[in-house]
Every structure is written in structure tokens, then in C-alpha cells.
Amino acid sequence: MSNLEILSLIEKLGQLFTDYKNCKDPKMKEQIYRDIQIIGKAIDV
Prior knowledge:
Elements: H1 3-22, H2 26-44
Helix pairs in contact: 1-2
């Protein structure tokens, strides 16, 4: 994975953390959390 791809994923993570913090819908919040986990694993590889 290139540095540019990693930076892009980190930027997306920042957006997701903000969405998670501001989300009022528990089901949507759960989906955002899963997305955060998936991206985190992708970066860790």
C-alpha cells in the first residue's frame, strides 16, 4: 500500500470518527464503528 493510499485512509478515519461522535442513531453508529475497524485493519497490514 502506498503512502498516498495510507494517508487517504487516515483522512477517511478522521471523518468517520467525527461522524461516530456526532451520530445519534445507534444502528448507524454501529455501522460507522465497523467501518472504522475495517479501515484500521487495512492500515495495519
